Amino acid sequence: MATPGPVIPEVPFEPSKPPVIEGLSPTVYRDPETFKEKFLRKTRENPVVPIGCLATVAALTYGVYSFHQGDSRRSQLMMRTRIAAQGFTVTALLLGLAVTAMKSRP
């Protein structure tokens, strides 16, 4: 029986590059998405969430403006409205997540 010799790789190891595994892509997508593309895709998947976010920001902005003007009653109302808008947004996120999970099931 012959003793096996040392295994010499065909291509020298390049530590700056990841190893190439045949049939395996390092990313899920062929072309990586930009922030804008991902935002638009997520908005199309669940359009209610951005509406809830905008409602939250609007209520917060108007509440702070009212507080600055000295209208504490309206400021309190807007802060309560902001909480309701945040609840709406979280509910929309959870429902969108549930719908997406149900769609992916066979």
UniProtKB/TrEMBL annotation:
Pfam families: HIG_1_N. It is found in: Mitochondrion membrane. The chain crosses the membrane at residues 48-68, 83-102. GO terms for cellular component: mitochondrial membrane. InterPro entries: Hypoxia_induced_domain, RCF1. Keywords: Membrane, Transmembrane, Transmembrane helix. GO terms for biological process: mitochondrial respirasome assembly; negative regulation of apoptotic process. Residues 20-106 form the HIG1 domain. This is HIG1 hypoxia inducible domain family member 2A. The lineage of its organism: Eukaryota, Metazoa, Chordata, Craniata, Vertebrata.
